[in-house]
Design brief:
InterPro entries: Flavodoxin/NO_synth, Flavoprotein-like_sf. This is NAD(P)H-dependent oxidoreductase. Pfam families: Flavodoxin_4. The chain is of the alpha/beta class and about 170 residues long. It is globular and about 40 Å long. About 30% of the residues lie in helices and about 25% in strands. Helix 1 packs across helix 5. It has a single domain, classed as Flavodoxin domain (Rossmann fold, 3-Layer(aba) Sandwich), CATH 3.40.50.360. The protein starts with a strand and ends with a helix. Strand 6, helix 4 and strand 7 form a beta-alpha-beta unit.
C-alpha cells in the first residue's frame, strides 16, 4: 500500500522572485497530484504550532529550527503508517533541506523496510541535501530518487509528476 505524506505551507510565499499570498501551499498541490495519480492515501502533517504567515518571519524561524535541531511537534495523524510499504514524503525546501517538522515525523516513525520517495517544492534550490538528510535519519529504509518541482510550476507539474512516477513505479 502507498501513502503520500506531506507538509505544506500556504500564506505568503516566495514565487518567481516575488512574495505572493497562496491559499494552498505548493507542496500540497504536488502531493494531491501524486495521490490522485497513484490513488494513494493523502496524509497531511500539520504542526501543532503554525509557522508565521509572514514569509520573512517564517524563514527566520525555519533557520533557527535547523540550526538548533529543533523538532516541532505535529498534530496526531489517524493513519497507521505501518500499513504502508511505500511512502511518498513531500515538503518545501527550507534552508537546503526539509522543514524540521518532517525531521520530527521521520524520527518518530518506524520506517525500517519501507520504500520512501521524497519530493519537494522549491524556488531554485531543488532537493538540496534533503535526500542525504533523509538517508541519515532513515538508515533502514530504502530512499528512492526524489522529485523537485519549482513551486511556481506546481499547478502545471502533471506531466513531470507522471514521468517521475512512471519511471519509479514499474
Amino acid at each position: 500500500m502507498r501513502a503520500v505524506i506531506y507538509y505544506s505551507r500556504s500564506g505568503e510565499n516566495y514565487v518567481n522572485g516575488q512574495l505572493k499570498q497562496l491559499s494552498k501551499g505548493n507542496t500540497m498541490v504536488v502531493a494531491e497530484k501524486i495521490a490522485d495519480y497513484l490513488e494513494a492515501e493523502l496524509i497531511r502533517l500539520i504542526p501543532k504550532k503554525d509557522y508565521p504567515d509572514d514569509y520573512q518571519e517564517m524563514v527566520e524561524l525555519a533557520e533557527q529550527e535547523k540550526k538548533e535541531q529543533k523538532h516541532p511537534e505535529y498534530q496526531a495523524i489517524i493513519q497507521d503508517i505501518s500499513n504502508y510499504d511505500e511512502l511518498f514524503i513531500g515538503y518545501p525546501n527550507w534552508w537546503g533541506t526539509f522543514p524540521q517538522v518532517i525531521a520530527t515525523f521521520l524520527k518518530q516513525q518506524e520506517l525500517s523496510g519501507k520504500t520512501i520517495y521524497p519530493f519537494c517544492t522549491h524556488e531554485g534550490s531543488a532537493m538540496g541535501t534533503s535526500v542525504s538528510d533523509m538517508i541519515r535519519l532513515c538508515p533502514n529504509a530504502k530512499i528512492e530518487t526524489g522529485l523537485a518541482v519549482r513551486g511556481s510550476k506546481a499547478a502545471v507539474s502533471d506531466k513531470t509528476i507522471a514521468n517521475w512516477l512512471n519511471h519509479l513505479i514499474k
